[in-house]
Design goal:
By secondary structure, the protein is α/β, with parallel strands linked by helices. Helices cover 33% and strands 15% of the residues. The strands form 3 sheets. An 8-stranded parallel barrel has the order 1-2-5-6-7-8-9-10, surrounded by 6 helices. A two-stranded antiparallel sheet has the order 3-4. Strand 1, helix 1 and strand 2 form a beta-alpha-beta unit. Helix 1 crosses helix 2 and helix 8 runs parallel beside helix 9. The radius of gyration is 18 Å and the shape is globular.
Length: 334
């Protein structure tokens, strides 16, 4: 998630409420390092490695049921549910399954694919998300994302399909923290969405590591406070920090001219952010998805909405061979 405008650090407008103790999950890629699609056996090995980490996760999240994100480098589409759900069932992992929603055709294909497996593997599916940061992308560059009413319609389509199948998992979306904080997502808050993933990165706000954790935690408080104020409830919508993290050695530094500081990639800074940001969020009872579980070395250079090129291959807590990159993934609480 990239944020190009300055949002002042401030306390949330209203008190926030979160779960009894923060839960940790990981965003997980669906491809091997050679761009080929992961198999069930690959996911089983992934989950075993994650479950042996410092804070063993019980959850992972994906982004699309038919993943076509590697088209530019010759990667074939990956059918995700049929590979990941049997692995989750074998290992006790719970999956938040994502559906891509930028186009009607992508959403329809993902909905059809999800429903092939949703009933059989219902116990392994924690929830569903429809879309990823489309509100933010639409604001930054119209035509690259979608509106809140667009995504609400697709969420309701999935809800109906699940209800017709006798399934009761929550359905929501994921977007940048500032799209919840500034009211853009209000139609979702008032429209019956019962799960919201709030993405927040001090890195994408060009923060020096010394202030990155404070920025990240303040972003969450602002977004959560607005959601709960508009909802008129601290419990009606389940909230997660949908993505946060820091690139390790080999990643790109990030400098947004709107800020006076630069976010510097590196394993030591990733370690610092994990301890001071992620562990603090868990201690403060936020549920967190760390971005991401494993390096995705197949990814091409990305061009951000501001035109800046960036490396997205070195964000994993583990490398592509499942070797731990961030040295200490434990959290200690007072």
């Amino acid at each position: 998630m990239r944020v190009s405008s300055v949002v002042a650090l401030a306390a949330a407008a209203s008190p926030i409420a979160v779960s009894a103790k923060g839960r940790l999950g990981y965003a997980i890629g669906v491809r091997r390092g050679d761009v080929s699609c992961k198999s069930t056996d690959d996911f089983v090995e992934d989950f075993k490695v994650l479950q042996g980490a410092g804070v063993p996760p019980q959850y992972v999240r994906t982004y699309a049921a038919i993943d076509g994100g590697a088209n530019s480098v010759g990667g074939a589409p990956c059918a995700v549910p049929g590979a990941i759900l049997p692995a989750a069932a074998q290992t006790g992992m719970k999956v938040v399954l994502g559906l891509w929603a930028d186009t009607d055709s992508a959403f329809k294909a993902d909905l059809d694919e999800i429903m092939k497996y949703a009933k059989e593997y219902s116990d392994s599916i924690y929830a569903f998300t429809v879309g990823s940061e489309g509100l933010y992308r639409q604001e930054q560059k119209p035509g690259t994302g979608y509106t809140a009413t667009d995504i609400l319609d697709k969420i309701n389509q999935l809800k109906k399909a699940l209800k017709d199948a006798g399934l009761t998992q929550k359905v929501g979306t994921a977007d940048s923290w500032n799209k919840y904080q500034d009211g853009t997502a209000d139609p979702l808050i008032t429209g019956g969405v019962d799960l919201m993933l709030v993405n927040a990165f001090g890195y994408w706000q060009s923060q020096d590591i010394s202030n990155a954790s404070a920025t990240y935690l303040d972003d969450l408080q602002q977004a959560y406070g607005h959601i709960q104020s508009v909802a008129g409830s601290t419990t009606s919508i389940e909230l997660w920090n949908g993505e946060t993290g820091w690139p390790t050695d080999g990643g790109s530094d990030y400098n947004d001219p709107s800020y006076s500081t630069t976010a510097v990639a590196g394993t030591q800074n990733a370690q610092t952010f994990y301890k001071n940001g992620v562990c603090a969020a868990l201690d403060w009872n936020f549920d967190v998805f760390y971005f991401e579980a494993f390096h995705e070395t197949w990814k091409p250079k990305s061009i951000g909405l501001g035109g800046q090129e960036g490396d997205e291959t070195h964000w994993g807590a583990f490398d592509v061979d499942r070797k731990q990159v961030i040295p200490d993934l434990s959290c200690s609480y007072p």
